[in-house]
From TrEMBL:
Segments forming domain GST C-terminal: 131-281
Organism expressing this protein natively: Streptomyces fildesensis
UniProtKB keywords: Oxidoreductase
Protein name per Swiss-Prot or TrEMBL: Glutathione S-transferase family protein
Listed CDD domains: GST_C_Omega_like
Enzyme Commission (EC) number: 1.8.5.-
Domain of life: Bacteria
Signal sequence annotation: none
Pfam families attached to this UniProt entry: GST_C_2, GST_N_2
PANTHER family on file: GLUTATHIONE S-TRANSFERASE OMEGA-LIKE 1-RELATED, GLUTATHIONYL-HYDROQUINONE REDUCTASE
Region (Disordered): 1-20, 294-314
């Protein structure tokens, strides 16, 4: 079976995600040579991408919109990768580039991996500071506090960090990246392993969320942001396109109510673009969907129905 990403496929047909190439950090103490500076950095995202979606939600929840600007790429990549064809003149208005790859090559002329979102770009140099998506949100939460809006939530409170990190590690392996391991597997065995791990983990998380409103503690944290970006794509994309089809999200009363609760929280649902999500997945993975036909469904009207999760407290 041909792999969608041959360079990231192991000998048993398993998808092994590339490492993040750019990992500089912007920290309050300036240890890495960069401090948070309003207006200097630009977050480049695709509204379709679950890893980028984390950063979009966190930026909104923390009120960092004025400090960090947002560039949005076209959900459909061409053979040159992510492009700024949603912008006038097909160029990002701040960076002046037509393709995200231009920033990557300016930073590392020898770069050969996939050019990915989210990427945080320095608007003064046009170079990529980081595409290390798990670190990006944690740093927005802990290093950019001087720029947070008054009353911004603490999404990564010190006393909850060990538990958030543990939940996030399981989530990443089995769920966030697990759906990709199902979809990009190029052997039956690798697919079934990923599928089993995904649904076993969803069973464990269902049990956990049956008795508590949020994943960790009594408040929304980074862990919920990470779970949400996969759940909101589940029925629209992963169930069908990535063959994650034991159950739909809407068939799991606990997770469906949990996802709706988050969706109806400002910063979550208002950052979801189902049209771009569907067009991106179905039209860019030619190995999985050669016809590029985008399914019409599912019916999305359920997302705004009452969820009843207030009864669990918090
Ligand atoms: N930076 C990570 C994760 C981010 C990521 O995979 N983003 C996707 C979109 S959801 C992307 O930019 N893909 C570009 C490509 O496949 O060429 C990676 O390198 O795997």
């Amino acid at each position: 079976m041909a792999a969608q990403f041959a360079r990231e496929t192991g000998t048993k047909g398993e998808f092994t995600r590339q490492t993040n190439r750019f990992t500089d950090r912007i920290t309050a103490d300036g240890a890495g040579g960069r401090v948070p500076e309003a207006g200097r950095y630009r977050l480049i995202v695709s509204l379709a991408c679950p890893w980028a979606h984390r950063a979009i939600i966190v930026r909104r929840l923390l009120g960092l919109e004025d400090a960090i600007s947002l560039g949005v790429v076209d959900p459909i990549r061409d053979e040159r990768g992510w492009r700024f064809t949603l912008d006038e003149g097909d160029r990002d208005p701040v960076l002046g580039i037509g393709f995200l790859s231009e920033a990557y090559l300016r930073t590392d002329p020898a770069y050969e991996g996939r050019v990915t979102v989210p990427s945080l770009v320095d608007t003064e140099t046009g170079t990529v500071v980081t595409n290390d998506y798990p670190r990006i949100t944690l740093d927005l939460e802990t290093e950019w506090t001087a720029h947070h809006r008054p009353g911004a939530p603490d999404l990564y409170p010190p006393h909850l960090r060990p538990e958030i990190d543990a939940v996030a590690a399981d989530l990443f392996r089995d769920v966030n990246n697990g759906v990709y391991r199902c979809g990009f597997a190029s052997s039956q065995e690798a697919y079934e392993q990923a599928y089993d791990a995904l649904f076993s983990r969803l069973d464990v998380l269902t049990e956990r969320l049956a008795g508590q409103r949020y994943l960790v503690g009594d408040r929304i944290t980074e862990a919920d942001v990470r779970f949400f970006t996969t759940l909101v794509r589940f029925d629209a994309v992963y169930h069908n396109h990535f063959k994650c089809n034991r159950n739909k999200l809407t068939e799991n009363p606990v997770l469906w109510a949990y996802a709706r609760d988050l969706f109806q929280t400002p910063g979550f649902g208002d950052t979801v673009d189902f049209d771009q999500i569907k067009r991106h997945y179905y039209a860019t993975h030619e190995q999985l969907n050669p016809s590029r036909i985008v399914p019409k469904g599912p019916d999305l009207s359920g997302w705004t129905t009452p969820h009843g999760r207030e009864a669990l407290g918090a």
